[in-house]
Specification:
Helices cover 58% and strands 0% of the residues. By secondary structure, it is mostly helical. The chain has one domain (3-81): Non-ribosomal Peptide Synthetase Peptidyl Carrier Protein, Chain A. The chain starts with a helix and ends with a helix.
């Protein structure tokens, strides 16, 4: 799975959780929770959906490593490459 495919999946899942947002509202380098004004429960829902879609679980200790869209893409790419 390419980085671009992973990014598309992440954006799709974010928009499922925050349907009032549009793709243009997602700044790749902005803190996801703050910039989209979502709470920790919605953030967890996004990570759970990504686990199902991509097959990589993000442990709580790594939440700080997936705080922006770019960080999420990098995180999932690295973990898929380790397989």
């Amino acid at each position: 799975m390419s980085a671009e495919e992973i990014k598309e999946i992440i954006i799709r899942e974010i928009l499922e959780i925050a349907p009032e947002m549009s793709e243009g509202d997602i700044d790749s380098d902005a803190h996801i929770q703050r910039s989209l004004e979502i709470d920790s429960f919605d953030f967890l829902r996004i990570l759970t959906a990504l686990n199902k879609a991509i097959g990589v679980e993000v442990p709580e200790a790594d939440y700080g490593k997936v705080d922006t869209l770019n960080h999420m893409v990098d995180y999932f790419v690295r973990h898929l490459e380790k397989r």
